Amino acid sequence: MYSSSDGRNSSQLLEEGGHPLDFQDKELQCSDCGVTFTFNAEEQEFFQSKGYTNEPKRCPACRETRKAERYGDSGYRSRRQMFPAVCAQCGKDTEVPFEPREGRPVYCSECYSKQRLGR
Ligand SMILES: [Zn+2]
Ligand SMILES: [Zn+2]
Q: Which of 64, 75, 113, 114 is 20–30 Å from 107 (CA)?
């Protein structure tokens, strides 16, 4: 008679992987196209790890679309729209990452860093 172990160690597995997952798949409605999409447990965990408290408002497809619109099709995430401006300090042509307002001085990067160092 030979006793064979049946190779089941499920109880051990449960003990080892025993951190509770309290995230559950959620059905959300896209605010752009109205489609119902799943905000799954994995994404919820990811959101929480990032410190986001809001649920996504848009379905993945619309999120992609918006991203593409915002950054153009080149896919450079760090690329921001730049506005032409004239430095209030040295009069040089420059570009700033925000829209220059009337009455607010705009500095080129050189003068800007000098200003910051000056204080
Ligand atoms: Zn959508
Ligand atoms: Zn300048």
A: 75
Q: From CA 112, how far away is CA 106, in angstroms rounded?
A: 8
Give the domain ranges of the chain. 10-71, 83-117
The number of C-alpha atoms within 13 Å of 111 and in the hemisphere containing its C-beta is 15
What protein residues have CB closer than 5 angstroms to ion ligand 1?
30, 32-33, 35, 59, 62
Q: What is the pLDDT of residues 81-96, one digit of tens each?
A: 888 999 999 999 998 8
The helix or strand, by DSSP H or E, that contains position 94, with its residue range, turns out to be: strand 93-96
Task: Please answer whether residues 58 and 67 qualify as being in contact, where contact means their C-beta atoms are separated by less than 8 angstroms.
Answer: no
Q: Which two tokens stand for residue 12?
A: 């051990």
pTM: 0.41
Ligand located closest to 92 CA: 2
Ligand found nearest the CA of 60 = 1
